[in-house]
Specification:
Elements: E1 5-6, E2 9-12, H1 16-27, E3 32-36, E4 51-52, H2 61-80, E5 91-95, H3 98-112, E6 119-122, H4 123-129, E7 139-143, E8 147-148, H5 151-162, E9 165-168, E10 172-177, E11 183-188, E12 191-194, E13 197-200, H6 206-212, E14 220-229, E15 239-242, H7 244-250, E16 257-264, E17 270-276, H8 287-300, E18 309-319, E19 326-329, E20 336-340, H9 346-361
Parallel strand pairs: 1-12, 2-3, 2-13, 3-9, 5-15, 13-20
Antiparallel strand pairs: 4-8, 5-7, 6-7, 10-11, 11-12, 14-17, 14-18, 15-16, 16-17, 19-20
Helix pairs in contact: 1-5, 1-9, 2-9
């Protein structure tokens, strides 16, 4: 059990981001080992909704990564198909007031300049797209590029497609360094894994893994709840959310924020979000949060007031202070490569992240400029 393993790359984290890093690294010809202290998709991935979104991102590096990721997800969907419940169903963002609609349309116009397809929807057309929406809404914007996967299935099938060796139930306790300070692998509670490159895909715990290598990465958890209804016919056709969701995603506030996000699934249940709050790793059930989610959802879709909620679950989004993930080599520890801090967008951004990581590991020119995602961009005191 304590025999040393060797490989080209150790990926720490078996969520969707880690799985995608393993897949693209393996396709670049590298020998990959994935290690996780829990099961596949046991962290943030398993508590996600599987959103692959462009609609909630303003022009800039994250949107560029989302567009790249969307193209890659579509390619993988051709390979993996129904195994990951990929749905190119589109997103509908609705405004509650005329002023809100005007702001939403200005936001959409900016997105169009960056390659997003964003179609204005007037009040009458809203109900053609979503017949069960509440009456009286002034309009919205339709985003056909928004898609969805079933996150735990997606992570599992990406791991399988990678052919990487998967070691679950192993906790990484240290990052091994050579005398010259470069990476030599990881130490786990069940033996060492030797490799010249370690990918930090530990999600919300990415800061802890970075600390094992002696560097600071100020990842913080943002807690979110999801409500799951009983199985229903397809009454919600798209991902539907209120325009204020975009502001909540971009907010720096630690206080509780909720904005209605409602979507159907291939299996029948409707998923209802979204909440955000910074409460550390507190896993306590919060009835006020769940009530707020239910109230917001029934405001958008009144029929939900007669639908049973079967369960709720929570997870922690890995949050970095500037709302961009850390992607790429850490110049402070050669051989340490980060792929974490995606907040609530990790499943959607996983493919692009994995693709870029593989290009950087393989010495190829990356498809996107990695500079905005540099892991050493934060002042040291931010992680204190």
């Amino acid at each position: 059990m304590n025999k040393r393993l060797t490989c080209d790359v150790v990926v720490v984290g078996a969520g969707t981001v880690g799985a995608a890093c393993a897949l693209y690294a393996a396709r670049a010809g590298l020998d990959v080992v994935i290690v996780d202290r829990g099961p596949v998709a046991g962290g943030t991935t398993g508590a996600g909704e599987g959103n692959l979104l462009v609609s909630d991102k303003e022009p800039g590096p994250e949107l560029d990564l989302a567009l790249l990721s969307g193209r890659l997800w579509a390619q993988l969907a051709e390979e993996l198909g129904e195994f990951v419940e990929y749905e190119a169903k589109g997103g509908l963002v609705v405004a509650a007031t005329p002023d809100g609609l005007a702001a939403l349309e200005r936001f959409a116009e900016e997105q169009r300049t960056a390659g997003v397809v964003a179609e204005p929807v007037d009040a009458d057309t809203l109900h053609d797209l979503e017949p069960h929406l509440a009456p009286g809404l002034p309009g919205g914007v339709y985003y056909p590029q928004d898609c969805q996967v079933m996150p735990a299935l997606a992570a599992a099938h990406l791991v399988r497609a990678s052919g990487a060796r998967l070691l679950t139930g192993r906790t990484v306790t240290g990052v091994l360094l050579r005398a010259d300070g470069t990476v030599d692998g990881v130490r786990t509670d069940r033996g060492d894994i030797l490799a010249p490159a370690v990918v930090n895909a530990a999600g919300t715990w990415g800061g802890e893994l970075a600390a094992l290598a002696g560097v600071t990465l100020p990842v913080l958890p943002r807690r979110g709840f999801v409500l799951v209804t009983e199985p229903l016919p397809r009454l919600v056709r798209h991902k539907v959310y209120a325009a204020d969701y975009v502001a909540d995603v971009a907010s720096d506030s630690a206080a509780l924020q909720t904005s209605p996000v409602v979507e159907g699934t291939a299996a029948g249940p409707i998923l209802i979000g979204a909440s955000r709050e910074r409460v550390g790793f507190d896993r306590t059930f919060s009835l006020p949060v769940v009530r707020a989610l239910a109230a917001g959802a029934t405001h958008l879709f009144p029929f939900l007031s007669d639908v049973r909620a079967m369960r709720s679950y929570l997870g922690f989004r890995p949050y970095l202070p500037d709302h961009l993930p850390a992607i790429g080599p850490d110049p402070r520890v050669p051989g340490l490569v980060h792929a974490c801090g995606h907040e609530g967008a990790g499943i959607g951004l996983a493919t692009g992240t994995g693709h870029l990581i593989a290009q950087l590991l393989d010495g190829r020119a990356p498809d996107l400029d990695p500079a905005p995602f540099r892991p050493d961009r934060f002042p040291e005191e931010e992680g204190a």
